[in-house]
Design goal:
The chain is an all-alpha fold and 275 residues long. The chain is 72% helix and 0% strand.
């Protein structure tokens, strides 16, 4: 991505992004103006040109600008691609112009180019899945809902390590049902290369805590069911990783400020480990 060395142009660019709205006409007008100012301050700022085109086309679709203004959007998006042909976002913006100019083949070509750059020539931290959703819209309007669905499924995918951390946070907040739901929703499963082994330990601890809760409520049936699930997670883990020591698991996750937080998840494992 080619950015800008002009700090004011960059601030205007960020303000334009934040003001973008398909609901509030005045905010959209201000957004367009911010991107205009950014490109005037730095005519080499590719993404500012791309955004300028994008918000312009959106405004036309909302009938906040006349249809006759479409030619400006084409010029600005083309400028963005010319300035930075290796930035997936510039192809995204040009594709959006072509889509709404009803040139569906050109739109798909732009989106495919953008996705290729997104997948193969873009730092992961700079990958905005919005291009996948926008490309899906293009394919949907071009009569290819199957491709649209696959792109939207990619765009909506939450990485497993987000689920893992959220499940752990739920557990520490004593929201065990949500912890179980989140940890169980991970796409990778025990034995998969990407699966974090300790996930089973967190599941075991959460099932144990639920078992204790049901027991305190006098619900022996649910208490027993959850205890069996806790033990099943522990047993499967120990079969898969026979050399794994409980002390290792605790040490790997023990850098807590408060000892009580470490004990909250480690104590159930100590109880379950040799049962």
């Amino acid at each position: 991505m080619r950015g800008t060395e002009n700090a004011k142009a960059f601030r205007l660019y960020l303000q334009g992004e934040n003001l973008f709205s398909v609901v509030l006409q005045e905010d959209m007008k201000r957004s367009r103006d911010k991107f205009r100012q950014a490109t005037e301050l730095d005519p080499e700022f590719a993404r500012a040109w791309g955004w300028r085109s994008y918000v312009h086309v959106r405004s036309i679709l909302l009938e906040w600008l006349p249809e006759s203004a479409m030619s400006d959007a084409k010029e600005w998006a083309s400028t963005a691609v010319k300035l930075d042909p290796l930035d997936y976002a510039t192809h995204w913006d040009l594709g959006f112009y072509h889509l709404n100019d009803r040139n569906f083949e050109k739109a798909k070509k732009c989106y495919c180019k953008g996705i290729d750059l997104y997948d193969n020539q873009t730092d992961r931290l700079d990958r905005k899945p919005g291009i996948l959703a926008e490309a899906a819209e293009g394919f949907l309007h071009a009569g290819d809902p199957v491709t649209a669905i696959s792109l939207l499924e990619r765009a909506m995918r939450i990485p497993d390590w987000y689920r893992w951390n959220l499940g752990w946070a739920y557990y520490q907040a004593q929201r065990y049902d949500e912890a179980l739901a989140m940890l169980s929703s991970m796409r990778s499963k025990p034995g998969d290369r990407a699966y974090v082994p300790e996930t089973q330990l967190f599941l075991a601890a959460a099932y144990y805590r639920k078992s204790m809760s049901f027991s305190a409520e006098g619900n022996a049936t649910l208490a027993r069911m959850h205890m069996e699930q806790a033990l099943d997670e522990i047993h499967r883990f120990r079969e898969q990783y026979p050399d794994f020591e409980l002390g290792d698991a605790v040490a790997h996750r023990s850098r807590f400020q408060h000892k009580s937080d470490e004990d909250h998840w480690a104590e159930p494992l100590k109880i379950l480990w040799d049962q």
